[in-house]
Amino acid sequence: MELDDIEDLQTKETVETTGSCELWDKRLDESQKAFAAFALYRDSEKRSFKNVAEQLNCSPQNIFQWSSRFSWRERVSAWDVEQDRLQREELARGRVKMRTRHLAMAQAMLGIAGHALREWQTRVEQKLPLGLSPEQIAMLVKAAVELEHRTMGTASGHQFTEIRVVLGGYEDEQAYEDALRGGTEAQPPLGEPKRRKPN
Predict the structure, then answer these.
(1) Which of 4-13, 57-66, 68-77, 182-191 shows the lowest mean pLDDT across its residues?
(2) What is the mean pLDDT of the segment spanning 133-140?
(3) 41-47: which pairs have CB atoms within 8 A and are 24 or more residues apart?
(4) How many domains does the chain have?
(5) What's the pTM?
(6) Is residue 199 situated within a structural domain?
């Protein structure tokens, strides 16, 4: 029995024992040499039969035959999808860790800021100078205003409501609506009774 046959037998036993095999794993009918060629092709940055043949010291035709017989395209496609999934999972875990780390840093910084504010408050109560530069005072005011706005909420723009008081009457709703919109129809003078259309 040759070395390749022994390795194939060991692989078959492992697969049968575990009961699981991915497309990119060694196939039962695949020799160790053919699988080594596939793994080299699969893991190459630039996939090329010629490069694999050169690295394994065999003909490109042999590599092509193995690729056709053992469905390399399908297997590397499945491999790429799995690698992409793993990378996305790793990135998601990294983002969660980053947010946790940033939150801890923010809480620590707020703790330090709170301590400094209490020190300043004590100095203010004791009527002691704070020794702040004009730039520091401006930054403090800006931060306080932003915090107040975020807490209280601010209007997105200055909007005014126009209230019109109409004295007198109108014959119909259309005339009333025109007057409300600032239409050209004249309003009746104060105290003048409503004009009604003749029947």
Answers:
(1) 4-13
(2) 88
(3) 41/67, 41/72, 41/76, 42/72, 42/75, 42/76, 42/79, 47/76
(4) 3
(5) 0.48
(6) no
